[in-house]
Amino acid sequence: MREWEKNVRKVVPYVPGEQPKNRNIIKLNTNENPYPPSPKVEEALRKMNTDAIRRYPDPAAERLVNAIAAQHGVSPKQVFPGVGSDDVLAMAFLTFFNSEKPVLFPDITYSFYDVWADLFRIPYECMPLNESLEIVKEDYYRENGGVIFPNPNAPTGVLIPLSEVEDIISHNRGVIVMVDEAYIDFGGVSAVSLLDRYENLLIIRTFSKSRSMAGMRIGYAIGSEELIRCLNDVKYSFNSYTMNEAAICLGEAAASDREYFEMTRSKIIQTRERSKKELATLGFVFPDSCANFIFAKHEKVPAKELFEALKKEGIYVRYFAKPRIDNYLRITIGTDEEMDALFDFLRRYLKNR
Ligand code: PMP
Fold first, then answer.
1. Nearest-atom index, ligand 1, CA of 109
2. CA of 16, closest atom in ligand 1
3. What is the pLDDT of residue 353?
């Protein structure tokens, strides 16, 4: 080992889903929205003034923050924007998880949580989901240095009711509880209504899924003014200009188009419900999903085999070679046409195998 190597921060990085160069595929592997962003986004993009790019952007991204606050009926002082929710989550881990006691999160969950914990040297413990792949709320009633879980959980799609989210928060008033609501718009009730009662609650959300803007990288946290102040102190100690001019401008346009948002998310929910029926007919089993994906395994055929056969056909889904979930496929809900192509292929493949 060379001498300088001992001072290198050693990390095992998160592996994002594949983004193939070939555009001619059916891409159901990274939970993107199959529909374009709101037409208001395109309009705002066309009107964008390039002179604004010459200058630094507004470090507080006020226009975007105001639009998000209005959408949720909270004060702009309760909103913290970031470069996708990954950036917001990383900043939140750094800001709030500084105890010697372990942070708790599910064993099967968003696989970035343990990566940030390792990166920032935060101790953590994983609480196993039960046999039905559900979060067991009582597991989070023990002493800890903080709690985080997605609702609905990923990659399972399983939602816990708001009352159970509240139970977890109310048993943890001495630490910060983060609820990652990346997929909440596809079928759950947000914990935003709990903010008035719990100043230790931080909700993290994103424009990448229900707003069709993964490529623009916009995420945000909503919490008490105190928590948002703490996040800003850390952010301004790291990088003042996280939100670029385009993200501020296009994010504001997207956030103000409620009608388009409602239309596309209800289309995805409809396609998901139909997809559940099709998958069940094809011999798949899966926990009931409230997200824009379904986490399914086949009763007879190994997931890895299906994953590879689908890929050969140009249909990309996500497969995790990890304990407990290596026989599942995570299938993002695409358009009806894309899902039909998937079901047609599976029908043929399973019949001729
Ligand atoms: N949380 C969860 C549970 C996710 O699945 C994702 C998507 N990879 C994210 C956060 C991050 O999304 P983004 O950074 O695009 O907002």
1. 3
2. 8
3. 87
Q: Which of 86, 202, 243, 332 to mutate to test the pocket of ligand 1 (most atoms within 8 A of CB)?
A: 86
Indicate if ligand 1 lies below 6 Å from the C-beta of 110. yes
210 lines ligand 1 (CB under 6 A): no
Residue 222 pLDDT: 98
The structure tokens listed for 306 are 């299906």
- pTM, whole model, 2 decimals? 0.98
pLDDT of 78: 98
> In 3D, which of 9, 216, 207, 206 has the Cα closest to residue 115?
9
Residues of the chain with pLDDT under 50: none
Tens digit of each residue's pLDDT (9 = 90 or more) over 244-266:
999 999 999 999 999 999 999 99
Structure confidence at residue 22 (pLDDT): 84
Choose one of 93, 110, 179, 289 to mutate for the ligand 1 pocket test, by most ligand atoms within 8 angstroms of C-beta.
110
Question: Among 351, 10, 37, 344, which residue's Cα sits nearest to residue 218?
Answer: 37
Question: For the purposes of burial, counting CB atoms within 10 Å of the CB of 6, is it exposed (0-12), middle (13-18) or buried (19 or more)?
Answer: exposed
